[in-house]
Every structure is written in structure tokens, then in C-alpha cells.
Amino acid sequence: MFFKSAFDAVKRGLSRTAAAVGSGLRSALHGRTLDDAILDDVEARLVAADVGVAAAREMVASLREEFRAGRVERGDDALEHLKRSMKARLAQGDAPSEGIAITQTRPAVVLVVGVNGVGKTTSVAKIAHSIKSSGRTVLLAAADTYRAGAVAQLAIWAERLGVDIVRGADGADPAAVAFDAAQAAIARQVDVLLVDTAGRLHNEGNLMRQLVKIRDVVRKVIPGSPHETLLVLDATSGQNAIAQATAFRAAVDVTGLFVAKMDGTARGGVVVAIHDALGIPVKLIGVGERPEDVQPFDADKFVDAVFADPGATIPT
Ligand SMILES: Nc1nc2c(ncn2[C@@H]2O[C@H](COP(=O)(O)OP(=O)(O)OP(=O)(O)O)[C@@H](O)[C@H]2O)c(=O)[nH]1
Ligand SMILES: [Mg+2]
After folding, report:
1. N or C: less crowded end of the chain, CB within 10 Å?
2. Is residue 5 scored above 80 in pLDDT?
3. If you take atom 1 of ligand 1, which residue's CA is the nearest one?
């Protein structure tokens, strides 16, 4: 896939989180000498950033240990320690990821799922844009026939991005649309088929079964697919994202997460909580509403951006 100026975009997309978390931690620690009150304050700030209570507690416990042992006394060293432990935490269990898996065999199929309004269709457009920019061909499947206007919304993206789309009428059977799109993807020899689906609450049994049907139909036409099932989560939804991911994973073997709307939250630390709770890799993050506002998730860049000093120039 093709991404522009990664660190700047990540930093811009995470500016609200950085303003809350990074600046907050820096003002608590910079130029100061550690004590127990400061350590408690740091833990509270991490919890407020939504990294999860367990992560906050463990990160501060390890810092406290260093402090007690006399290895870390300066607040600025504590900041570095926190950065390192957040990076180590996010790196656990994840292969370094360059965004989504695009197979050598054509077509690669990416099924995009999630609850209502999290950013699925926009994320499909972003992925389409980045694949097209890398010189590959994309076909969109408008398998959200459920919400009025959803097909038209994706069709507008297809036109703007200059990519093909297979669409049924509003109200058509989404599995039939997915079937047609999978066949078209083979016939037209496209590199990647992106399937947009209707938003559904994770506790709606019927709609979750419909999703399984879409997946099975695509798999029948293109054996071994979908190669990637991306669950889109809204970064602003906090801990509820974990319940969503648990339910979607049980239904359709989610292979990766697309965390959208990172730019809209001061609590981007939720990525840490999601990672801890699920162990599903975060593959991409959405940092705005434009097609180019997407980045592959890179734990080191993410943590650097969260801790970045807005006033300072960025080391590259
Ligand atoms: N700021 C910001 N807005 C986003 C991002 N991704 C999506 N949005 C916005 O979120 C709103 C919903 O996006 P959609 O892509 O329509 O969401 P959806 O999940 O397809 O919604 P349904 O199909 O109704 O379930 C739109 O206004 C998008 O512009 C993002 O990364 N950042
Ligand atoms: Mg949609």
C-alpha cells in the first residue's frame, strides 16, 4: 500500500491525544524529581487516556520499581521509561505490519465490518485510495444494501477515486451483491476486492448471521478468502470497542483492526487497551475524513506521536 509522510500524519491525527496525554505527562514529569504522588498522578493520567486500568497500573508499577531501586529518579527519565514500556506493550504478539495483507494471488479480498457509523465506508475509500496509489487495481462491493443511501455513498467514493464498484439495489440481498462482486473481481482480474458491509450492532444475532453468509459466499467464489477481515472501531467509543471486537471476532474471524477517528479523540490510548484485551493486531488507523487520512499502525510511531512535544521539532 502507499502512504504519505507517515510520521507527520500520525502526529497530526494524534494531536488531541498528544495534547492531553503527552503534554499532561510532560507537565507532571519534566524537570521534576519522582516521588509517590507524582507516580500516582501519572497513573491517573494514563487511565484518563483510556489505555486501560491494567495497562496503566502495570506501566506505573514497573516505573515505581525502577524508582525504588534508584535507577530512575528524574522525571524526564521516567517519561522515557513510560514510552519504552508502552512500545514494548504494543509490540507484543504483533508481527511488524505494513498495513493489510495483500496476497500474491489475485484477487485479495478484504471484508470490512463493524457497528453503525464507526467509519467503515470511509475506511474502505481510504484503503481503495492507498491501493490505487500504489498502482494496483481495486473493485468495491457495495454490500451495505440495508441503510438507505449507503450504496450511493460508496458509489460517490468510487467515482471520486476512479475505481470500479459492484452494486445492487437498496434492499437487495447483500450476500448476492458480494457474490456478484467476487465473480466480477475474478473476471476483471483486479488485485483487491474491498467489501463494504452494513453497520450492525454486535448483539444483533440476525445481522451477525448475515455477515457470516456474506463471508461464506465470497469464500465459495474465491477459495481462501477473505484474506483480511477488518473490524473498524471508532477510537472515540472507548472501552465499548472491546465488547464490539469480541463479538465480531466470534462471528467472522477478525484478522485486523482499523481504528478510525483517531483524530477526533484525546483518548487515543484506547489502542493500548484494545491491544491488551484482544491481541488482534491494529493494522490501520484513520486520522481524518479524507481518503489520504490513513496510516499503517506502527507502535513506535504511535507512541512517539502520543508523547510528542507539540512545540518541538520532530526527530526523524
Ligand atoms: N474525523 C474523522 N472522521 C471520520 C473518520 N472515519 C470516518 N469518519 C466520519 O465518520 C462518519 C461515518 O463514517 P462512515 O464511513 O459513513 O461510517 P460507516 O461505519 O460506514 O457507517 P454505517 O454504514 O452507517 O454503519 C462520516 O462523517 C465520516 O466522515 C476518521 O478517521 N476521522
Ligand atoms: Mg457505511
Report:
1. C
2. no
3. 288
What is the C-alpha end-to-end distance of the chain, expressed in Å?
Answer: 21
pLDDT of amino acid 92? 65
For residue 196, the ligand 1 atom closest to its alpha carbon is 20
Q: What is the DSSP letter of 315?
A: P
Q: CA-CA distances (angstroms) from residue 240 to 216, 243, 274?
A: 27, 5, 10
CA-CA distance, 284 to 255, in Å (whole number)? 12
User: What average pLDDT is seen over the chain?
Assistant: 90
CB count within 10 Å of CB 223 equals 7
CB 154 within 8 A of CB 167: yes
Q: What is the pTM of this model?
A: 0.91
- The residue whose grid cell reads 478510525 is 260
Beta carbons of 167 and 205 less than 8 angstroms apart: no
Ligand 2 centre distance from Cα of residue 120 (Å): 5
Please say whether the dihedral angle defined by the alpha carbons of residues 113, 118, 121 and 126, taken in this order, is positive or negative: negative
Residue 314: what pLDDT?
Answer: 47
Q: Which residues of 100-134 are buried (b: 16+ CB within 10 A; e: fewer)?
A: bebeeebbbbbbbbbbeebbbbbbbbbbbbbbbee
Q: Do the beta carbons of residue 291 and residue 4 sit within 8 Å?
A: no
Contact 244, 202 (CB under 8 A): yes
234 lines ligand 1 (CB under 6 A): no
In this prediction, residues 290-311 reach a mean pLDDT of 86
Residues 6+ apart with CB under 8 A from 111: 195, 197, 214, 215, 218, 226, 228, 229, 230, 252
The ligand 1 atom nearest the CA atom of 232: 19
The residue whose C-alpha atom lies closest to atom 7 belonging to ligand 1 is 119
User: What is the pLDDT at residue 145?
Assistant: 93
Q: Which atom of ligand 1 is nearest to the CA of 124?
A: 15
